[in-house]
Amino acid sequence: MSYKAPTVEEELALMAGPSNSEVVVQSKPLFLDRTSVSYPPLDEASQEEGGKGNQGEEENENEKTAEMRQKAIEDILNGQADEYLRILGVTEDSTERQKIKAYRKKALLVHPDQNKKRPKQAKEAFNWLRNALEKLKDPETEMPDPKLVPVGESWHANAFSDSDTDEEGGDGNSSAGEADDEKRSSKGKHAATRIEREAPEPVKRIYEDVTADVLQLLQCPEDEGALQNIRQAHQRILQYYDELDPPVNDEEKVNLEPSLLQAIARTSREMLKKLEDDPGDVNAEQIYRNQESLLDTNGRFFGWPTSWRLAKVDIAKPGIASTTNAGPYVERLKVDPDNAEAISKLQHINRAAIEYQNHNASEMALDGKDPVPIDILRDYYRTINSFVSRLRDEPNDVAAYRKAETINDEFLDYLNNHDYPRSWAINIRDILLDTRPKTRDRELSAPKTRDGEQICGYRSWKNGYNKGGEDRYAYLFAVLPDQNVPIGVLRSGSLLGQEAKREYLAFRGKNEVRKYKTSDEDRWQELERVFVHTTGTRHETWVQPLLADRSATGQLEHIERPLMTRTEYRKLRCGIDGDYDIVDLYEKHGLNPPNHVMARLPRDRSSKNKRSVPLLESSTYRRSQDHDTDVLDEILAQLRRQSLERKQGKERQKVKERETKKRSERELAILNEALSEQTVPSQTTTTPIVVPKASSATATSQDEEIKSLQLQIAKLTSLLLAK
After folding, report:
1. Is 108 exposed, middle or buried (0-12, 13-18, 19+ CB in 10 A)?
2. What integer pLDDT is reported at residue 63 of this predicted model?
3. Smallest Cα–Cα separation from 384: which of 334, 459, 435?
4. Is 621 helix (H, G, I), strand (E, B) or coil?
5. Which of 150, 222, 659, 681 fits a 20 to 30 Å CA distance from 96?
6. How far does Cα 241 stand from its chain's mean position?
7. Domain named J: which ranges (predicted)?
C-alpha cells in the first residue's frame, strides 16, 4: 500500500478542522485530537506482530525515548537563546519547509506534556524552539503564512507529525512517547469533534477581567496594550495552577493563548480586507471560516467565554466589515452610551461604509440604512441601563426587571429585523449575576490623577439642573495617595480634575459606593482600606472591606471589594465593631484615628481619656517582657565598683604620705645623733633641730610639714659635710 506525504496546505486544512463538527463534552480529552493520523497506516498483520513483542523490549524502547527527549532538551538549552540556527538544527541555506520539519521533529521530543518528570526544562526548551522558528521565517518563500498555523502550548500529538523517517528522531514511535496503550488505540476516537470544557471559577473571573482586551485584540491585532494585558492574565492563570492544592493534571488545566489569539486576529483581519476589495474571493472566505472554526474549537477546549469569537458574518451581505469593526465600540456604548470616543469611531465606520457603497453602487447596497445605527443603540442602552441600575440597588425589584427584559426583547427584534448582530443586545442576567470583584490587577490599570494617585471609587448625587434643563450631578472620589498605606482621602470632582474624572467614569471597572447587603455579613473577611474627609464641619468616611466565600480547602472564592460609607459598614459589622476596625487599621500603620470615629468608642478608647498614639516600640517591647532587674543590678554594681575604687585610691594615697613622713623623721633623728657625738669648738654652738609636732591648732598641712623636714635634713647634711 503506497503512502504519500501530506502537503503543507493539506496539513493546514487538517489543523483548522471541520467547521460543522459535532460538540462533545469530556473531562480529560486529547487536545485537538480531531485529525487523522499523519503516519502511514499499518496493515493488520503488522499490528498483530507489533502487539506480540515482549515487555522487556517495550521498556527498553521507552528508556531510549526518554533519553532522546532529555538529550534534545539539553541540546537546546546548552547555549544562548538567540542561537536560532543551533536550536532548530538547521543551516542558513535551509528552506522554509526544512525549518518547519526540524521544528516538528524537536517539538515531539521537548514538549512539556511529553516530559512530565522535567516540565520546567521542557517548557523553557519548547519556548526557545518556538521562538527560533519565528525568528528564522523566510518572508520571501511562497509557502502559506505561518501565522495561519498558530502554535499553542497545549499538546496535540498529530500537530507536529511528519511522514518522512529518513532523519534521526523522525520515526513514528517517538510521537507516542510515554502515552499508554489506551490513548494510542483511541487516536481517532474523537476525530472530527470539538471538545468542550468548563473553566474553574477563579479562571472564569480572570477571563472576565480580560474580555475587553480580547475583543479589542480580535478587532485590532496590533494593539500592544491589549496583548500585554492578555499576557498578564495568562501568567495569573499559570500562578493559580501553581498554587492550587491539591494540584491537577495538565490535561485538566485551561489557559489563555495570547499568540494564538493574535495570530487568528491577524489572519481574520487580512481576509476581511480582501473580502472588502473582492467579495467573491472564495479562498479568503474559506480561510476566514477556518479561523472562525479554529477560535471556536480552542474556545470550547479552554472554556473561554462565548463572546470570544469572530463575528458570524454573511460574506455575501453588504456592510459585513462595518458591523465587525463596530463590535468593540458597541461594547463601550453598552456601559456608557455617552462615550465620546466610541461614538466618534462608529461615525467614522459609517462614513467609510457609505463611501464604499457609493464607489461600488452597482455591486453593493445598504438598503438605505446606516451600517451602525448609533442613535438608536444609545437610546436603547440608556433606557435599559436605567432599569439595570435600579436592579443593582434593589435585586428584588420585579417591576424594573420586567421592564428591562421587555425593552431588551424589543431591541432584539429590531436587531433581527435589520440584520444587525444579536451580540449588540444586553444580557441582563449576566450583568446582574456579575458580582465579581474588581481585582487588584484591574484596579492598577484604572485611570489615575494627574499626580499618579490611584482612584479607587466614587459616589454621585443629583445637584440641580443645567441650563438645558438636564440633571446635574456632583461627584466625590476615593483617592489613595500612597499604595503602601491603605488610608486614603475623599476628593471632589473639581479637585480631581475633569480629565481624570471623565476617564474614570468611562472606565469599565469603576467602583461606585453601594449599600450594605444582608449576604455581606457571612462573606466579610477584613477591612482593607479607609478613605476620610476631615476638613470642615462635616466629616465623611468610606471603607473598602474584603468580602469572599471560603471553599472546603480554605481558599477565598468570589472575592469582592465594594466601597461603602461608614454608616453602611457599621450595619455590616453590627455596630461598634465597624469603628473598632477603622481604629485598628489606623493604629496598625502608626497613624492617629479621626476624632469623629474615636468619639463613638467607649470611654477607655476615646481620645479624651486615652492617647490614640501607640506606645514607642522600645516601651512596648519592655512591657511585653518579664519584669526582671538584671540590667538595673548591673548598673548599680558598676557604680559601686567605681565608688570603691575612688575610696581605695584615697586610702593608698594617705598611707603613702604617712610612710614618707616617718622616713623623714627617722633620717632627721639619725643626723641629730651624729652631730651630738662630734667635738665642737667653743665658739661654735650646736642647736639640735627639733621636729615640730602637728596639732589640731596648727594650720600647716601635712604636705608642708614634709617639705619642712626635707629642708632641715638638707641643711644638717651640709653642716656635717663642712665639719
Report:
1. buried
2. 63
3. 334
4. helix
5. 222
6. 14
7. 83-141
CA angle 523, 528, 533 (to 5 degrees): 120
Could you give the 3-state DSSP secondary structure of residue 240? helix
Residue 563: DSSP 8-state: B
| CA count, 13 A, side-chain hemisphere, 418 | 20
> What residues does 487 pair with on adjacent strands?
530
Percentage of residues in the chain with pLDDT exceeding 90?
Answer: 9
CA atoms of 135 and 77, how far apart (whole Å): 17
CA distance 98 to 82: 19
Q: State if pTM tops 0.90.
A: no
Find, among 82, 83, 85, 132, the residue nearest to 107 by Cα: 132
- Position 625 scores a pLDDT of 58
Taken as a whole, the chain contains a residue count of 723
Pick from 585, 519, 525: nearest CA to 561: 525
**Closest Cα to residue 133, out of 155, 111, 101, 159?**
101
| Residue 42 buriedness (CB in 10 A; 0-12 / 13-18 / 19+) | middle
Say what the pLDDT of residue 363 is. 45
pLDDT for 8 equals: 42
Residue 159 reports pLDDT greater than 50: no
Alpha-carbon distance 401 to 384, whole Å? 10
* Closest by CA position to 252, among listed 193, 294, 197, 185: 197
Nearest to 542 by CA among 506, 509, 574, 514: 514
Provide Rg for the chain, Cα atoms: 46
Q: Which residue has the cell 477571563?
A: 207
How many other C-beta atoms are found inside a 10 Å radius of the C-beta of residue 457? 28
Residue, of 484 and 395, whose pLDDT is higher: 484
Element (H, E) at 565: strand 564-565
465: Cα separation from own chain's centroid: 43
CA distances from 627 to 109, 540, 623, 632, 716 (A): 68, 44, 8, 11, 72
- Which tens digit of pLDDT belongs to each residue from 520-562? 888 899 999 999 987 777 788 999 999 988 877 777 888 889 9
Residue 393 has pLDDT above 70, yes or no: yes
What is the C-alpha to C-alpha distance for residues 591 and 532, in angstroms, rounded to an integer? 13
Measured CA to CA, the distance from residue 565 to residue 391 in angstroms comes to 20
> What does DSSP assign to residue 254?
-
Instruction: Quote the cell numbers at residue 143.
Output: 509557502
Would you state the pLDDT for residue 581?
Answer: 92
Contact 27, 292 (CB under 8 A): no
Backbone angles phi, psi at 663, to 5 degrees: -65, -40
Mean pLDDT over 278-296 rounds to 79
Q: How far apart are CA 151 and CA 264, in angstroms?
A: 11
Stretch (H or E) spanning 548: strand 540-550
- Which of 517-526's residues contact partners 24+ apart within 8 Å by CB, and which partners? 520/545, 520/547, 520/562, 520/572, 521/572, 521/574, 523/547, 523/548, 523/549, 523/558, 523/560, 524/572, 524/573, 525/556
